[in-house]
């Protein structure tokens, strides 16, 4: 059966423009918006690079199924709140027109860590980034998220409209503050008046988003067809769990009632974000590198292996929990127990290779913050050091069987070349830790950290990842 809108379905008007339309936003933001059920808050999705989402969604009127996967079975749900999909490189003007339309009051983003073109160690804009350089030279025809937001806000200011709220849904620490800083830094180069207006009138609430959403596969598409009868080319699959903690700061207070779907509006997001980035994402990245090297395809497979399950328990209990303050009313051991179940859900096939992507952009907030806390308290960090060493081996580009690893990372070239030109293993580790965009100026100089990673790297090389995590 073909998926198409019927006349008895109520329509949605665009209230939100979402930059970086991927599976995560369609399984998280869109479902909370669907639950809120306010039809003036429909979502217009924008792909900043590829046309594939639009090509799949447009022929089915932007309808799709979200398939909740549980060990006990699967539950498909039809999602209707997407009002359209634009592909920015094909028509940047259409994107800018929608972003600066009066009905658009919120711009949400999932452009991944690297999409902000910033330096992950400092949170400052990387002016040498080709996307930033392009958008500075051609501000009215941008290609990057920051450039689109600044030009659209400029048009809104010129038209006498209020700015839109910018709601970042990426896994960055203090994401609202970081994005606000980047937008204002970029705007100030073009027009100090615009930058001042955005600072005075705009809003960049911080938010913590959580739901495990693996990339959709052909098998998922076939399963949705078998379950629903619809030939849906663009379903998303997700775990049952979801969480969204949002700072309650929106321009003119205008936002959907996402709390209907369980979103929490709070004054301080930071404690929630800290535990999520460090306990969930930190462990995810550790398992991704070490699990991949040990031959495991998914996180659930890795958790099935008792050596890895024991390792991640030590990482959580002994190294992360003691240095991360819990948000009010949260018991971290209960949180960790839930994570163990979520990671072990066999119905979610989240590939280690997928999570391993873009480590240079992820490590600072996922692992290095915890490492800094432990060093400040002079505490040992064997599991964290092993995770960093796993990333170094992984980005070296050769697996334990001698086969090439398809390393996807904006710094992939640099990571490989510094490793190739180093004389020995210890020099290799030092060369990678010397990359200040990732490790800052402090960690390369901390011999406790450097020596711990050198030792972990040596163990990985000598014994392999599976034996290393079992130690
Ligand atoms: C994962 C996240 O791909 C990754 O790096 O760690 O996408 C993770 O699944 C989500 O943050 C869970 O909320």
TrEMBL record:
The keyword DNA damage does not apply. InterPro entries: 6-PGluconate_DH-like_C_sf, 6PGD_dom2, Mannitol_DH, Mannitol_DH/Oxidoreductase, Mannitol_DH_C, Mannitol_DH_N, NAD(P)-bd_dom_sf. GO terms for molecular function: oxidoreductase activity, acting on the CH-OH group of donors, NAD or NADP as acceptor. Keywords: Oxidoreductase. Residues 269-460 form the Mannitol dehydrogenase C-terminal domain. Pfam families: Mannitol_dh, Mannitol_dh_C. Residues 15-259 form the Mannitol dehydrogenase N-terminal domain. This is Mannitol dehydrogenase family protein. It comes from Acidisoma silvae. The lineage of its organism: Bacteria, Pseudomonadati, Pseudomonadota, Alphaproteobacteria, Acetobacterales.
